[in-house]
Amino acid sequence: MAKKLPVPVPRLTVITLGVSDIRASIAFYDALGFSRRLKATGDAVAFYDTGGPVLALFPWDQLAADATLPDKPRPQAFRGMTLAWNCATREEVDTVLAFAVSKGARLLKAAGETDYGGYCGYFADPDGHVWEAVVAPGIEVGEDRRVHLAA
């Protein structure tokens, strides 16, 4: 009889973005106001407190090598993934988009009504990683900066 393996507790703890210029990316995410932690890593890797999973920045070619994948060609098209900056109000969505653009992001889609009763827009960071600024029914942002989902 096969031994039953223990079931691990699922969790998402870190999102690592491969970046072309780590110094420029650190400057961008610092400018957005994310709180950098473990600064002793210097320019090797950067970790940010997001109020939930950690956001990490790592040189693109080194991240690809670590995952044993080729680092080229680098996709210019949609990568099938977005990061979300959930907001408390529609006004906050507009503020986040304008702020991100003022810090070097590229506006992909101006904020507007969604078909599910929300409000969102999109921007891309300097490496093209897509962020959604959004307020959505059933998703609240608490004072703890964490997202709380309706039951």
Automatic annotation (TrEMBL):
Residues 11-136 form the VOC domain. It holds the Pfam family Glyoxalase. InterPro entries: Glyas_Bleomycin-R_OHBP_Dase, Glyas_Fos-R_dOase_dom, VOC_core. Signal peptide: none annotated. PANTHER family: BLR2520 PROTEIN (PTHR36503:SF1). This is VOC domain-containing protein.
